[in-house]
Specification:
Elements lengths: L2 E5 L2 E3 L5 E8 L8 E6 L5 E7 L6 E3 L7 E6 L4 E6 L8 E7 L2 E2 L3 E5 L2
Parallel strand pairs: 2-11
Antiparallel strand pairs: 1-3, 3-8, 4-5, 4-9, 5-6, 7-8, 9-10, 9-11
């Protein structure tokens, strides 16, 4: 059974940065593409970013391009999401998704 464990969320002012991490426990991490998905208060799930199994390809939702960077370290079974120039509308619970599993989510709050 695969478990995905996110960390790195928190409270940040507009314009600030956070780096989210997601560690995969179990399974063969480097066989799978991974993604980040978020859910803002009162809204549905929104796809944020994805990365191919070897990290060679990255994909972003339009509103995240230029601000967010996804990466992975297969030796550490970890995928990251570096978030810069954060905006209040980035406030959400961020979920790691992949390996047919979901993490528990980590809260990101952007507010002055």
């Amino acid at each position: 059974e695969v478990q995905l464990v996110e960390s790195g969320g928190g409270f940040v002012q507009p314009g600030g940065s956070l780096r989210l991490s997601c560690v995969a426990e179990g399974g063969t991490f480097d066989d799978y593409a991974m993604a980040w998905v978020r859910q803002s208060p009162g809204k549905g799930l929104q796809w944020v970013s994805a990365i191919s199994f070897n990290g060679g390809d990255q994909y972003y939702a339009e509103s995240m391009k230029g601000r967010f960077t996804i990466s992975r370290d297969n030796a550490k079974n970890t995928v990251y999401l570096q978030m810069n120039s954060l905006k209040p509308e980035d406030t959400a619970v961020y979920y790691c998704n992949g390996m047919q599993s979901w993490g528990q989510g980590t809260q990101v709050t952007v507010s002055s």
